[in-house]
Design goal:
Order of helices and strands: HEHHEEEHEHEHEEHEHEHHEEEEEEEEH
Oligomer: single chain
Number of strands: 18
Radius of gyration: 23 Å
Helix content: 25-40%
Largest sheet: 8 strands, parallel
Distance between the termini: 55 Å
Length: 408
């Protein structure tokens, strides 16, 4: 495959935009099409990202402390293994176009920090942008994809979040394709997280380009933001799967803007949706409730289930005190994950029949995952009182009688 290489892009942003457009036109005529080829993302990634809590206020000490805490708390043992730096780690480019880290905040260098994270048995991630600048106006990756990918491989990066700022109208698929191809060329498996914000409906096409794709703009630590992003998953949730996942953005659990029950809903629904589970809080100051939510291994199992089928919203209804709904996800072993979600302002009784769930039979073993309690054999339907802004998270499995009949 032929790619026009530009070693020294024009210095001005305006002239670089024009040069990029010229390259785009030539490559379209050549019909260069490749696919992502890294074997990653068979399950949604789990880890930590710096942005939601710290934004640009990051440094190597913070990242080292975070890596330590992932191990010390037991989070890493549950699968939270990625330590991802978001924007503001980079400062400039050298004379050959290679990215240069900010030595004031990362005095030992990115390679040393990557080695430190790896020494803890964890994986290391970085951020860049498919535009000329990052969202915080640091050097972007557009037109420098090969240099950047080579440097990421040299630093032994395991995960790249690739944002979408300052692209000046250059077609999005072409920009993400360039970095995908550059990553492929390095031979190093690097999880490619596309942060396109859902503007061009990436759930319908991005599997050829990345291991995950943002489906919306940024989350913020509010109930309204959580609901808005959740609603935007309804029409596309079924499109994620092994190798390529919908990404409704990182977790806000523990950052203080929502109640404990709202954080429980946020975490459980992201898990059932098979979203990447990337913690966004300060791991050195987590409350016991934060740890209890993030370390609920039974809800994590919904996310990491071998079947890899994303949950879907079964229905939403208007009640006396507000909206309520049921989400369901198929699990391996002919089991189901079921979430009853009350958006309303008062406790509401929510009922869903086995017929609605397409459950094979009139009896099922039911377990409450937040209560960590077996509810026994339940006939015909699931019926629970769900408090305001809360969820009831259930795992539904065959009764012993059903299992015996199927085994004969």
């Amino acid at each position: 495959f032929f790619f026009l290489m530009i070693r020294r892009p024009p210095r001005s942003t305006q002239s670089r935009s024009s040069a990029a457009s010229d390259v785009y036109k030539r490559q379209v005529l050549l019909g260069c099409v490749l696919s992502l080829d890294n074997g990653l993302g068979q399950k949604p990634p789990m880890g930590w990202n710096s942005w939601n809590k710290f934004a640009c206020e990051i440094n190597e000490t913070l990242i080292q402390q975070t890596a330590n805490r992932l191990v010390e708390t037991g989070l890493a043992a549950l699968g939270y293994v990625y330590v991802n730096l978001d924007d503001c780690w980079q400062l400039s480019r050298d004379i050959n176009g290679y990215i240069v880290e900010d030595n004031n905040t990362f005095p030992s260098g990115i390679k040393a920090l990557s080695d430190y994270v790896h020494s803890k048995g964890l994986k290391f991630g970085l951020y860049s942008d498919a535009g000329f600048l990052t969202c915080q106006k640091r050097p972007g990756g557009l037109m420098y994809e090969r240099q950047d990918a080579q440097k990421y491989a040299e630093w032994e990066v395991d995960y790249l979040k690739y944002d979408n700022c300052y692209a000046f109208g250059i077609p999005v698929k072409w920009r993400y394709e360039r970095m995908r191809n550059a990553l492929n060329e390095t031979g190093r498996p690097i999880f490619f997280s596309m942060c396109e914000w859902g503007f061009k409906d990436p759930a319908h096409w991005a599997r050829e380009y990345g291991n995950s794709w943002r489906t919306t703009g940024d989350i913020n630590d509010t109930w309204a933001s959580f609901l808005d992003i959740l609603d935007r998953q309804v029409e596309i949730s079924h499109l994620g799967g092994p190798g390529g996942w919908n990404d409704p953005d990182m977790l806000e659990v523990g950052n203080g803007g929502m109640t404990t029950s709202e954080y429980e809903a946020h975490f459980a629904l992201w898990a059932l949706l098979k979203s990447p589970l990337l913690i966004g809080c300060d791991l050195t100051t987590m409350t016991e409730d934060t740890k209890r939510i993030l370390m609920n291994e039974e809800i994590i199992e919904l996310n990491q289930d071998d079947l890899g089928k994303s949950g879907v919203r079964l229905w939403q209804r208007q009640g006396e005190h507000g909206l309520y709904e049921v989400w369901v996800g198929e699990l391996s072993g002919n089991e189901l994950g079921v979430i009853m979600f009350n958006r309303g302002e008062e406790t509401t009784q929510i009922t869903v029949s086995y017929e609605e769930l397409k459950w094979n039979g009139q009896h099922a073993n039911v377990r409450d995952l937040y209560a960590r309690q077996d509810l026994g054999l339940v006939a015909g339907e699931l019926r629970f009182d769900v408090p305001s802004h809360s969820v009831k998270v259930l795992r539904v499995s065959q009764s012993h009688k059903q299992k015996s009949a199927r085994s004969q």
